[in-house]
Write a structure and sequence with these properties.
The structure is a homodimer.
Chain A lengths: L2 E4 H8 L4 H13 L3 E2 L4 E5 L4 E10 L4 E10 L10 E9 L5 E6 L3 H18 L7 E4 L3 H17 L9 E6 L3 H11 L3 E5 L3 H7 L2 E4 L18 E4 L12 H6 L2 E4 L2 H4 L3 H8 L9 E2 H5 L13 E4 L4 H20 L1
Parallel strand pairs in A: 1-7, 8-9, 8-11, 9-10, 11-12, 12-15, 13-14, 13-15
Antiparallel strand pairs in A: 2-4, 3-4, 4-5, 5-6, 6-7
Helix pairs in contact in A: 1-11, 2-3, 2-11, 3-4, 3-11
Chain lengths: ~325, ~325
């Protein structure tokens, strides 16, 4: 019988799952070529405007294959509904039997994206973080910070109570930045920046999370030793970083070299002839080779995350495995 | 909250749904160009062999969009599982909210395929059926006959007890033909044929339902006035009818002209240069134009059904609507 897992149970399972580790394993398998990930399916709607994406695939010799349906219907808030909707399906890879339906309403996509951000910070951010900068004030801004909090808390010795990390927030809408700062104040020492440049002046770990179609951070803003993770740009038109930042960077990481050929910051920088298409290194490759990671506290490093189906496979499998082991306990 | 409908409830709902009418409406919308049906998604598996197809789309201005996941894992019977697995998902077309999950295990695909066969018989079979021939003895053979039984029963005046229609069955495996004949004996006067040619000699309505890759029926077997519905061939390699039968036919119907360019009997006949690619007429077009339907009892007519996502949209919507109205009653 197919197991139906509602959002409340998904959230509970996630508290026991090490998502950053799961993403690391997934990206490594992806870069080793052990994943089957066909092109994304798409349905577009006009009245009202909406789009649905179907991402699917599997890791060879794994237990499951996964299909994710995720949609954005941008008039939904007028009806009191979230714009993002969707679910994930897990099927047995050996029989095709549908094993589980995760009614996640888009939550797992947010979480796997944020966990990839924390994974990148683990390997590419400088050792000493003087400030964490966040461009954008939406759900992804909040989740990126929560995953970074989980990462840095796990790295602090148990006996040592960690000092609250300084965070600088910038968003187009100042009220939203204040609201986010309020939510996060128990975990971070939050400051509201007046501009993206002020974020860059105070932070050496920056995450950009907006749907912007023009650069918010300029090359002249960036200090030596900064790491930037760009998660907002996932289409051919979206862009948060001046392409010269990628030219300046010592290391440019792509979560999927194949996807970077048609979308995201790397695509924009290659189009602008700011970087050579051979400069980016795939995340899963860099994770298994220390010489492809940050070498010192002066390097500028960039990670461009456009989102890969292997992340969906990993998070859905982890939630279901936890659900199963809880049932047996 | 998403409604989960298990197979037992799906089967119960179907008893109250006029599937042949639903298919007719769907094919007409499809041929009018009112359906959005992107290319089919596919996942292939090697150990063990299996394949999964993702069919999805919507009828414009309808209530839902539908995603169907259907797989075939051919070693499943060794594990006591059906080869076919799958489910259908209905989402609100205006908000993306997942409204219903139909855990149909492939059953709705069988039913919509059989209902399309009966729809074709309604418009293209001769008025007087001297015998119904079935090539193949699997689930689809049985369901095609049950849908034809429903069609002809609905056409018989209430006061008149219908005479059992003669049926001729042929399958590679004689035992399977005997088993099927036993199952259907309460509805039909069943005969086992020694060859496909014997089926053609005794029947003027024939349905072919096998996964054969070489012609089972030859042009010389076919009598004037025969209608043949071919449902088995849905890939570029499968073929049940000698291409000369399509050359001989007065009318050749395709459920989807677009799909007939790459699969099915029509594809094979065009490749063999037996017919011109412009000969086939699309089913939904023919349904709305009596001059494109059978004109007399001497014509030979062929319908090549490769299966179209609009059928999945129609059957899933009909089941869910019935489920909803039952909940409210």
């Amino acid at each position: 019988m197919t197991t139906i897992i509602p959002l409340s149970q998904i959230k509970q399972s996630l508290t026991s799952v090490n998502l950053i580790d799961a993403m690391e394993k997934g990206f490594i398998q992806f870069s080793l070529g052990n994943c089957v990930v066909p092109p994304v399916g798409e349905l577009l709607f006009d009245e009202p405007k909406g789009d649905t994406h179907i991402k699917y695939g599997y890791i060879k010799k794994d237990n499951y294959y996964v299909i994710k349906i995720a949609s954005g219907f941008y008039d939904n808030p007028q009806l009191g509904l979230a714009s993002s909707q969707g679910l994930m399906l897990l099927f047995n890879q050996k029989t095709g039997v549908p094993e589980a339906i995760l009614l996640d309403e888009g939550y797992l996509t947010d979480m796997r994206t944020a966990a990839a951000g924390a994974l990148v910070a683990k390997y590419f951010a400088p050792r000493q973080i003087k400030g964490i900068g966040i461009i954008g004030t939406g759900i992804q801004a909040e989740q990126q910070l929560m995953q970074l909090h989980a990462l840095y808390e796990s790295q602090t010795a148990d006996s040592k109570k960690p000092i609250k990390q300084a965070v600088w927030l910038w968003g187009r809408n100042c009220d939203n930045a204040e609201i986010l700062a309020g939510k996060l104040s128990q975990y971070f020492d939050c400051n509201i920046a007046q501009s993206p440049a002020q974020v860059a002046a105070n932070c050496n770990l920056i995450v950009t999370t907006t749907p912007s179609e023009s650069a918010l951070l300029q090359a002249s803003d960036i200090q030596p030793g900064t790491h930037i993770t760009a998660v907002g740009s996932d289409t051919e038109h979206k862009q948060e970083l001046d392409s010269q930042i990628l030219a300046l960077a010592d290391i440019v990481i792509s979560d999927s070299i194949a996807q970077s050929k048609s979308r995201g910051e790397i695509y924009r920088a290659v189009c602008a002839k700011a970087i050579d298409a051979r400069k980016p290194v795939e995340l899963g490759t860099a994770l298994t080779n220390a010489s492809l990671q940050r070498q010192n506290d002066q390097q500028i490093t960039i990670a461009d995350l456009t989102g890969v189906a292997v992340q969906d496979i990993m998070i859905a499998s982890a939630v279901y495995q936890h659900h199963l082991s809880n049932q047996q306990a």
